[in-house]
Amino acid sequence: MGIVEATLSFVKQQLAGAEAGHDWFHIERVYHNAMHIAGFETCNREVVQLAALLHDIADSKFHGGDETIGPKTARAFLESQNTAEETIDHVVKIIENISFKGGKSERTFSSIELDIVQDADRLDAIGAIGIARTFNYGGFKNRQLYDPAITPNMHMTKDEYKASNAPTINHFYEKLLLLKDRMNTATGKQLAEERHRFMEVFLAQFYAEWEGVK
């Protein structure tokens, strides 16, 4: 079994029973997005494959906010597969730098492979799937759908963003609607445009129904 196939099997096993917005199907969608974008870039495809598969292997949201557990888990697995240290180091750095984190954290590492996997992950956070994932997570955390009295906080620190329990609709303004302009690759930017427009249409319909207009 090759390293990509072994990683795929490992991730499926590790994420069995995970919250639906961060489960194996999320990984699979990100993987497909990443492979699509990679087809238009000069890159190390194996690094993109492994990083896409392992990017959410232990999301800090589900591990007490510990941002080290994901990179550690990925490293331990890749080492167990006798993966080259150069590849392991690259994949781990991608995992450490991929998250939005309230948009307040500067990346400490750059590569086209990170650009590709980050775009692939962000594409799954917007559009129809992004809307579904957002409300699924909001329900998982028992958050309100919407409260007109609680306005989005566009100036949160990283820690405030992680600790926020604001209504789910606020997350569109605090993250999702910002992602279109933060895509890295030309392909990612192109794909984000339609998904962004879909969210705008959804929000217009949501508010109209909330007010009883439609």
Key traits:
214 residues, 59% helix, mainly alpha, single chain, 0% strand
What this model shows, in words?
The protein is mostly helical and 214 residues long. It has 10 helices and no strands. The radius of gyration is 17 Å and the shape is globular. The mean pLDDT is 92.
SSE diagram, text form:
Layout: H1 3-14, H2 24-38, H3 45-54, H4 69-80, H5 85-97, H6 112-123, H7 127-140, H8 158-163, H9 168-174, H10 186-210
Helix pairs in contact: 1-3, 2-3, 2-6, 3-5, 3-6, 4-5, 5-6, 6-10
H-E order: HHHHHHHHHH
Helix content, binned percent? 55-70%
Separation of the first and last Cα atoms: 55 Å
Q: Structural class of the helix and strand makeup?
A: mainly alpha
The 3D shape can be described as globular
Number of helices: 10
Question: In total, how many beta strands?
Answer: 0
Tell me the fraction of residues in β-strands, as a range: under 5%
Low-confidence stretches: none
What is this structure, in a nutshell?
This protein has 214 residues and is mainly α. It is built from ten helices and no strands. The relative contact order is 0.13.
